[in-house]
Write a structure and sequence with these properties.
InterPro entries: Catalase (IPR018028), Catalase_AS (IPR024708), Catalase_clade2 (IPR024712), Catalase_clade2_helical (IPR043156), Catalase_core (IPR011614), Catalase_haem_BS (IPR002226), Catalase_immune_responsive (IPR010582), Catalase_large_C (IPR041399)
Number of strands: 19
CATH architecture of the domain at 84-157 and 214-331 and 344-372: Beta Barrel
Keywords: Heme, Hydrogen peroxide, Iron, Metal-binding, Oxidoreductase, Peroxidase
Mean pLDDT: 92
Strand content: 15-25%
Helix content: 25-40%
GO molecular function, one term: catalase activity
Enzyme class: oxidoreductase
Largest sheet: 10 strands, antiparallel
Number of helices: 18
CATH topology of the domain at 84-157 and 214-331 and 344-372: Catalase HpII,  Chain A, domain 1
Oligomer: single chain
CATH superfamily of the domain at 84-157 and 214-331 and 344-372: Catalase core domain
Low-confidence stretches: 1-10, 708-713
Cofactor: heme
Structural class: alpha+beta
Length: about 725
C-alpha cells in the first residue's frame, strides 16, 4: 500500500481546519506597514507632492499602489446568488456506500471530510435583504482525498425551467426591470409574471416559491436539494440515478410574510447573523445527507420523467436513504477571501459520482465554469485558498491571470520523455475518474421529450400536500405578488394558468387581484399528496430558539432565574428586553443587564416572548406602548407567548383576549390556550416552564386564526 492509499482523511480534516488557509493568513498585529512588495512605508497619510500645496507626483509608487488596489477591491458580483454567507464544517458518512458508489468520502464513517457551505438568495444584489421571498442557494464544497466535489443546490427540490437554454430568459425576467432597475430582490413585478404565464413549466416551482419555503426562519432550519438528477457509480461500474437531500436536524421552519418584510428593514442581515451567532455560541447547525436512488432498469417506471428538473421524486414512492451528517462549526475569517471568492461548479465531481442527460444539468456544467472565469479573473481561480483542493494537484496547465503555483522544470506538455512522461495519466486502479459508459444514440435536434410535457400534475400534488395554514399563505402570496403586477391581462392569465393546478386556488387568487374567477373549475386530475413536502410534518424542537424576556425595574429575580435556567437546560436562548439599556434592579435589590432596548429589539427577531412577574415591573410595562406592541405582534405571528404571576397583567391588557382572567382565581393553576401559557399566584414555575418549552417547539400556533375569542393584533 503506497502513501496515497494510506491517505487519512480524518487527519486531513483536523489539519485543514487549522492549516488549510494558514499560509495565506495574516492578522498584521504589531507589524510595520509595508507596500504589497514588502517595502516599509514611512507615511501613508500624505501623497508625494511638488511642494506642500503642489501637484501629486506620478512617481509616488505607494500612492499609485494604494489607490489602484482600492479601485479594484470589488470583483463583479454573481449574476445570481449574489448575496451569500459561508461557513466551514465537516461531513461524516453513517455507513459505507460502496454498494452504490465508489466515492471515497462516502465509505468510512470514521473519516471527517472538510466542507465549505455557502447559503444565498438568488435574485437580489449583494446589498439586498436576507428575508426576501426567494429561492435560497445551498452549495456545499467537499474537500475530499480525490479532489473537490461541489454539490450545488437550492432549498427547493425543483426549478423554474427544464432546459438550461432558458436560464438567461428566466433570470432576465425575474431581475429588476431594465428601464428603472425596480424592484430589488423581488419577483412581484410584471416581467417575471409575464414570463410565468408564457412558460407553463414554471407552475410547480411557483407553488414552492409562493409557499413558506421561500422565507426560511434560518439557514439552520431549511432543507437543501441537489435539484438535478445525478448518477452513483460503484466499483463494478453499475450506475444508479440519484437525487441529493440535506435535512436539518432542527426541522424545516419559516417566517411569516409580515415578519419577513419587517425584518428586511429592522435587520436585513437576519439570516446571516443568526447562523454566525449560533456557531459562535457552539450551537453548530447539523444536516443529514440523504439520497433517493433509482435503478437504471426502473428509469421509465414512474408517471413523470426522472430527468425533468421541474419534478420531485415523491419520498413516499422513492424513499430518502439517510447516509451521513454535516456539521457546520466554524465561521470564516474573512468574508471576501472566503465567501465572496469561493467558486462552486456543478461539474466538480469525484470518482463514483457522474452526470445524467438532465437538460438543465447539462447547461449548468458549462455555465458555472464560464461564470467563474470572468468573476475571478481567469483560469486560475482554483488556486485561490478557499477553492484549493486538499489533495495534491499535478498537471501541465500553466500561466494565466493570477497564477499562484511556481511550476518547476522544463516540461509542460504530454507525452514527454524529458520528465519520463510525468505527470502520467491515472488508471482505474488509481481511482482515476472514469466516465459512465452510457450509450447515446439519436439525431441532432432542438426538441424536448414528450415525457416533459406535463406541467401541472406535480403542482397539484404540492397543493394537495399543504396544510390549511400553508395553503392560505400561498393564496396570500399570490395576492401580494400578482397584485403587484400592473398589467391586468397578465393578472388574468395567472388565474387561468393556475386553474390548471386547482380550481379553488384559482378562484381565491382572482378574489385578491381584481381578476375574473374561472367559469369552470379546473384541476390536473391529481388527488394524491406527498406529506414529506409539508412543513407541518417536520421536526419540532425548542433547541437554539430565542426568547425575548420583557422586564423592568422591580421584577421578581427568583422567578426570572428559574425561567432562564429552565430555558438554558432545554437549549433555548434568552435575551432581556427593556425600555433602556444598562442594569435593572429586582424588587429585592439584585441586578441584571438588559440585552436590548425596545428601540433595537422587535418581536420579529425572536421565536417567543415571556413576561416575568414583579408588581413594579408589570406596572411599568403596562404603561409602555412598545411592550404591548411586542406582545401583540408576537401573538399575531402565532408565536408562543408566556407570562407568570403579575406579568400576566400585560397580556390581559393586550389584544390577546381570552387570557385576561386566566388563573386569576386559581392559585398556581397553569393555563395553556393556543400557545399562550400563563400562571398566576405560583411559586413553583417548573410546570409553566415545561409547558412553555413545548409551546416554543411548535414554532407556530396556527389554530389561533380560527378562534373568535382570541383576536390577533
Amino acid at each position: 500500500m503506497d502513501s496515497m492509499q494510506k491517505y487519512n482523511q480524518t487527519k486531513i480534516y483536523e489539519g485543514a481546519k487549522n492549516d488549510q488557509l494558514q499560509t495565506f493568513r495574516s492578522n498584521h498585529t504589531d507589524q510595520k506597514l509595508t507596500t504589497n512588495q514588502a517595502v516599509k512605508v514611512i507615511n501613508t497619510d500624505d501623497s508625494l507632492k511638488a511642494g506642500s500645496r503642489g501637484p501629486t507626483l506620478i512617481e509616488d509608487f505607494h500612492f499609485r499602489e494604494k489607490l489602484t488596489h482600492f479601485d479594484h477591491e470589488r470583483i463583479p458580483e454573481r449574476v445570481v446568488h449574489a448575496r451569500g454567507f459561508g461557513v466551514h464544517g465537516y461531513f461524516q458518512a453513517y455507513e459505507s456506500m460502496a454498494q452504490y458508489t465508489k466515492a471515497k468520502f462516502l465509505q468510512d464513517p470514521s473519516v471527517k471530510t472538510p466542507v465549505f457551505v455557502r447559503f444565498s438568495t438568488v435574485v437580489g444584489s449583494r446589498g439586498s435583504a436576507d428575508t426576501v421571498r426567494d429561492v435560497r442557494g445551498f452549495a456545499t464544497k467537499f474537500y475530499t482525498e480525490d479532489g473537490n466535489y461541489d454539490l450545488v443546490g437550492n432549498n427547493m427540490p425543483v426549478f423554474f425551467i427544464q432546459d438550461a437554454i432558458k436560464f438567461p430568459d428566466m433570470v432576465h425576467a425575474i431581475k429588476p426591470e431594465p428601464h428603472n432597475e425596480i424592484p430589488q430582490a423581488s419577483s412581484a413585478h410584471d416581467t417575471f409574471w409575464d414570463f410565468v404565464v408564457n412558460t407553463p413549466e414554471t407552475a410547480h416551482m411557483i407553488m414552492w416559491l409562493l409557499s413558506d419555503r421561500a422565507i426560511p426562519r434560518s439557514f439552520r432550519m431549511m432543507e437543501g436539494f441537489g435539484v438535478n438528477t445525478f448518477r452513483f457509480i460503484n466499483a463494478e461500474g453499475k450506475g444508479r440515478f440519484v437525487k441529493f437531500h440535506w435535512k436539518p436536524l432542527l426541522g424545516v421552519h419559516s417566517l411569516v410574510w409580515d415578519e419577513a418584510q419587517k425584518l428586511a428593514g429592522k435587520d436585513p442581515d437576519y439570516n446571516r447573523r443568526d447562523i454566525w451567532d449560533a456557531i459562535n455560541m457552539g450551537e453548530f447547525p447539523e444536516y443529514e445527507l440523504g439520497v433517493q436512488m433509482i435503478d437504471e432498469e426502473d428509469e421509465f417506471k414512474f408517471g413523470f420523467d426522472i430527468l425533468d428538473a421541474t419534478k420531485i421524486w415523491p419520498e413516499e414512492t422513492i424513499p430518502v436513504k439517510i447516509i451521513g451528517k454535516m456539521t457546520l462549526n466554524r465561521n470564516v475569517d474573512n468574508f471576501f477571501a472566503e465567501t465572496e471568492q469561493v467558486a462552486f461548479c456543478a461539474g466538480n465531481v469525484v470518482p463514483g459520482i457522474d452526470f445524467t442527460n438532465d437538460p438543465l444539468l447539462q447547461g449548468r456544467l458549462f455555465s458555472y465554469l464560464d461564470t467563474q472565469l470572468i468573476r475571478l479573473g481567469g483560469p486560475n481561480f482554483h488556486e485561490i485558498p478557499i477553492n484549493r483542493p486538499i489533495a495534491p494537484v499535478h498537471n501541465n496547465q500553466r500561466d494565466g491571470y493570477h497564477r499562484m503555483t511556481i511550476d518547476q522544470g522544463t516540461v509542460s506538455y504530454h507525452p514527454n520523455s524529458i520528465q519520463k512522461n510525468t505527470p502520467e495519466s491515472a488508471s482505474d486502479a488509481d481511482n482515476g475518474y472514469l466516465h459512465y459508459a452510457e450509450k447515446v444514440d439519436g439525431k441532432k435536434i432542438r426538441e424536448r421529450s414528450e415525457s416533459f410535457r406535463d406541467n401541472y400534475s406535480q403542482a397539484t400534488l404540492f397543493w394537495n400536500s399543504m396544510s390549511e395554514p400553508e395553503k392560505q399563505h400561498i393564496i396570500d402570496a399570490f395576492h401580494f405578488e400578482v397584485g403587484s403586477v400592473n398589467d391586468k391581462y397578465i393578472r388574468q392569465r395567472v388565474v387561468d394558468m393556475f386553474n390548471n393546478v386547482d380550481g379553488q386556488l384559482a378562484t381565491e387568487i382572482a378574489k385578491g387581484i381584481g381578476a375574473t374567477p374561472p367559469k369552470t373549475a379546473g384541476k390536473a386530475g391529481v388527488t394524491a399528496s406527498s406529506p414529506a413536502v409539508s412543513q407541518a410534518n417536520t421536526i419540532k424542537t425548542a433547541k437554539t430558539r430565542k426568547v425575548a424576556i420583557l422586564v423592568d425595574n422591580g421584577f421578581n429575580y427568583t422567578e426570572l432565574m428559574q425561567f432562564m435556567d429552565a430555558m438554558k437546560n432545554a437549549g433555548v436562548n434568552t435575551e432581556i428586553v427593556s425600555k433602556n439599556l444598562g442594569m435593572i434592579t429586582s424588587e429585592d435589590g439584585k441586578q441584571i443587564e438588559v440585552g436590548k432596548n425596545f428601540l433595537k429589539a422587535a418581536s420579529v427577531m425572536y421565536d417567543a416572548v415571556y413576561v416575568t412577574g414583579g408588581r413594579q415591573s408589570a406596572d411599568s410595562l403596562l404603561k409602555q406602548g412598545d411592550a404591548l406592541h411586542f406582545v401583540n405582534e408576537a401573538f399575531k405571528h402565532a408565536k408562543a407567548v408566556g407570562a407568570t404571576n403579575e406579568g400576566v397583567d400585560l397580556l390581559a391588557a393586550s389584544q390577546i383576549q381570552g387570557v385576561a382572567t386566566a388563573g386569576t382565581e386559581n392559585n398556581g393553576e397553569l393555563v395553556t390556550e393556543l400557545g399562550v401559557v400563563t400562571v398566576r399566584n405560583a411559586t413553583d414555575l417548573n410546570p409553566f416552564n415545561g409547558e412553555f418549552i413545548k409551546a416554543i417547539a411548535e414554532h407556530r400556533h396556527w389554530a389561533r386564526k380560527n378562534q373568535k375569542d382570541i383576536v390577533p393584533a
